[in-house]
């Protein structure tokens, strides 16, 4: 696994902590091709795991990336990864050790915590994906963390489609083997 494009292109992500399912290079390449220019945006990487999605966004020009990971062991591995990339002291990168929904609620009180792009990639374990996915999306879209026209990309297994949620519009959906990517935005944002 490696960073595909940008200033960190070719950098290996290294060893993956047991139990973490990183987004494959092929899926990341397709995802980022569809996102276009990321220069200067602010990114929230929920259920960060290896940090591959957030690091790819940073490599491609995102100004700020906040990684949220509940596992201390996985967050520690992510910190070591940032150190190996000489990014440990980068002011635009931050790791938050917390469960995703709690982090979203806590960030509401921070006026600086506003995002243009959110990655939401909960565990694929049976029942785990849905139990984290929908409540986290509801918290995101009902709060003030998303900038106008923000995009939320949800990764999940193809066997568990995302149920329609009030106030949320599906922009696109694509399958890659057993992975399903769904692009979302607020239904209250005016269409272009």
Describe this protein's structure.
By secondary structure, the chain is of the alpha/beta class. It has one domain: Rossmann fold, CATH 3.40.50. Helices cover 29% and strands 27% of the residues. The chain has helices at residues 25-35, 52-59, 72-84, 100-107, 128-142; strands spanning 42-46, 64-69, 93-97, 115-120, 146-157, 168-176, 179-186. α2 links the parallel β1 and β2 (64-69). α4 packs parallel to α5 (128-142). The longest helix is centred in the last third of the chain and has 15 residues, at 128-142. The model has no long low-confidence stretch (mean pLDDT 89).
pLDDT under 50 segments (min length 5)? none
Strand content: 25-35%
What would CATH call the homologous superfamily?
Vaccinia Virus protein VP39
Shape: globular
Mean pLDDT: 89
Number of domains: 1
CATH topology: Rossmann fold
Cα radius of gyration in angstroms: 15 Å
Number of E strands? 7
Task: Please write the CATH class name.
Answer: Alpha Beta
Biggest β-sheet: count, sense, barrel?
A: 7 strands, mixed
Secondary structure layout plus pairing:
Blueprint: H1 25-35, E1 42-46, H2 52-59, E2 64-69, H3 72-84, E3 93-97, H4 100-107, E4 115-120, H5 128-142, E5 146-157, E6 168-176, E7 179-186
Parallel strand pairs: 1-2, 1-4, 2-3, 4-5
Antiparallel strand pairs: 5-7, 6-7
Helix pairs in contact: 4-5
In short:
The chain has 192 residues and is an alpha/beta fold. Helix content is 29%, strand content 27%. The protein has a seven-stranded mixed β-sheet with strand order 3-2-1-4-5-7-6, with helices on both faces.
